[in-house]
């Protein structure tokens, strides 16, 4: 237990766009307060996963406890909560923010406010945070602090007159940030004698300790030996250890109101710990849980298949290991005629999907094929049932479906004026509905409702390309709506290729079907027979390409001395056919489908 | 008893051609007597194992066998006639290059008993001859052909086409000039890049490109048309002959008959008395081959009986190259009794027939149509089990 009363605790988060210097500032704060020695300091301490550090993305919420002697002569405990920075983890972000009373809003003084920053600021405002604007990279010649201050006021509506100009990189004025945390952010409130009520902020699997749970105590206390109960599931555990991060894990006697720390309780998998859940005392439980709990639900699904069919078991084991530490990730076995045995996997969003794929490749050495991502559709059956559709291949006979609903998002796009036209065209092409269009200096902020389906296709790439990389984009889920959706099936030699079928709005079906047919035409090698490649809605062909038969393939010279070699070559070719997929009398190398799917990504 | 064809390999060349991946070697000096003795010794060894069998043909290949002493050819022909029951019109072919030196010795080879000459002309275009690394020019080629025609009852020559940048019109013109030189047999090969050759290196470096796909197919069809005008029929993928002028020796390979191969790197297929079919080949390096023959009487490095499916595959991959196709009964017999329907994928066979690549003749032979032959390398792995 800390010897410092709640009045001298400050819990804060840092909100920033990627590359605006959140991690660098965190490093400086840790350094200045002496939480780590120079030797222990490595760049961006908080982003501990290799992948996180490399991509500059925080995936798991993390925390560090700093001791700071302020100018008033008192010692304060400052708990820095590092939050995941991406929309895919929006719920995790909101839980991290709910563990704090205030935020630092870090804005790059030359780049200005980005879409992602906005989304997170709104989360912080919703969480009732006091927000201190910080202008970073003030040392750069391109810095325009006055313009950016004005932008913060206009776009976000925050008073930026006392924004703190700093350079996290050089350390310039970082001391002022520490002082502002103490003077401008409120201390936590809570009742130490009330029944225990702690917010489960995040959890992860540690090979030695089992599941480590990051908590914020609201009321009461958490201590070793205590029987705790998860209020959403009713599961009961005995606390083995409580502690704080300095950022090293240090065990303490107990955690009291306002404190952020960890507990371990012989919990087997992170799936048993739900982010946002309330932890209470089993014998003296709180009457009401903390507000805002919701289980994490995947919004994007795709099939993952091993390139080498022999890796299937390894993939199964790897997914299980991954799931140990990522409860938001879902998977179930799936079979595809084109790709063999694999898994249908659910993700919080596209970045989450990408991160999981990369981790499987990097940490487990697996070469994977991913099918095109699909959103979760809601099917209203004619018999009144409502079911979810995760895989276009599972789409039932449309005559039994009364209506299909698809998920929508509300997207915020900030883009320099020059590219606005192109961005609006793109949004309109993707069935976007404009909600708002405002200007901030020379930049436009467009708010659109878009079907998520249109975004998972290739929206990011197109947005990047039409704005030359200057557009920034963020979104929140925005409900379901009925839509004229069809399943497009891709047929090779008259037979459907399950892995390539997709759902599309009727107006986009032909264009996308044709694109895939054209791609396959280039990818599938010519064979003895000509191969029709078709896209179809039900029985109606909407696009067609034909791969002509190969023109010539015969050895010019073959005499008595060549026969053994020729036979062995033939036997090798027959062996190679085992990696082919049969479509009637033609055999398509699996690599062609893999390449088609890769081009999609 | 299965009749035999006899192949004798002379492994030396004056220079290595950039497209050639045959077992050929360039030596400053060749000990003619030593290699003559070794070839005779290895032939005697095989003759003793094989016994007196009907002999259909004898073929001196290489390398450049026209660089061997004519008396070597004479001695080997005499040995072969003594060891086997030679057909009265035994076909004896010699491969030769049209350089002036070799042309000067053609009479001596005729004297030795050679009755069919196969000349490595390769092209009648000077630029193409230089590209192909040949040591003769077009005039020498024509002179050699004229000299050969006067000396040998039967004459064939080789041309290489589908060369980089070659147009259909220029190939037709060149081929017409060649056909007018009045051979009754031509081997017309599309240039292919073989691994390990100098062309393979140059091609990989992108220094030249070959006609491919539709273009190569067009050149192939043009070749058939031109040859047909002169009465030459494509009896095999790359071989064209007037009726009766087909190479009996090469037909023996394509019909998957027995053949004996003597000399460095030579391959053979021989039926044993118990019905097993033995595949054997010899050491490729000339000096090592000669040393082993001197020591053991032969330089076989591997000899194995072939399994029925292997035999059926070999019989089909060779036989479907021929316009006459294959007789299923013969395939069954040559594969040691494996039923024909077990050797091929019958559903695929039906599809290939429907597509017009294969056909049954009235006499019950399975043939690859011209369009099928053009795609034989893709067709075989689909067809064969």
TrEMBL record, chain A:
SUPFAM superfamilies: EF-G C-terminal domain-like, P-loop containing nucleoside triphosphate hydrolases, Translation proteins. Its EC number is 3.6.5.n1. It comes from the Bacteria. It catalyses: GTP + H2O = GDP + phosphate + H(+). The keyword Cell membrane applies. It holds the Pfam family GTP_EFTU_D2. Keywords: Cell membrane, Elongation factor, GTP-binding, Hydrolase, Membrane, Nucleotide-binding, Protein biosynthesis. It is a peripheral membrane protein. One of its GO terms (molecular function) is translation elongation factor activity. Residues 7-189 form the Tr-type G domain. GTP binds at residues 19-24, 136-139. Required for accurate and efficient protein synthesis under certain stress conditions. May act as a fidelity factor of the translation reaction, by catalyzing a one-codon backward translocation of tRNAs on improperly translocated ribosomes. Back-translocation proceeds from a post-translocation (POST) complex to a pre-translocation (PRE) complex, thus giving elongation factor G a second chance to translocate the tRNAs correctly. Binds to ribosomes in a GTP-dependent manner. Belongs to the TRAFAC class translation factor GTPase superfamily. Classic translation factor GTPase family. LepA subfamily. This is Elongation factor 4. It comes from Caldovatus aquaticus. The gene is lepA.
UniProtKB/TrEMBL annotation, chain B:
It comes from the Bacteria. The keyword Iron applies. PROSITE patterns: RADICAL_SAM. SMART domains: Elp3. Keywords: 4Fe-4S, Chaperone, Cytoplasm, Heme, Iron, Iron-sulfur, Metal-binding, S-adenosyl-L-methionine. Residues 1-233 form the Radical SAM core domain. It is found in: Cytoplasm. It holds the Pfam family HemN_C. InterPro entries: Coproporphyrinogen-III_oxidase (IPR034505), Elp3/MiaA/NifB-like_rSAM (IPR006638), HemN_C (IPR010723), HemW-like (IPR004559), rSAM (IPR007197), rSAM_sf (IPR058240). The keyword Membrane does not apply. Probably acts as a heme chaperone, transferring heme to an unknown acceptor. Binds one molecule of heme per monomer, possibly covalently. Binds 1 [4Fe-4S] cluster. The cluster is coordinated with 3 cysteines and an exchangeable S-adenosyl-L-methionine. Belongs to the anaerobic coproporphyrinogen-III oxidase family. HemW subfamily. This is Heme chaperone HemW. It comes from Caldovatus aquaticus. The gene is hemW.
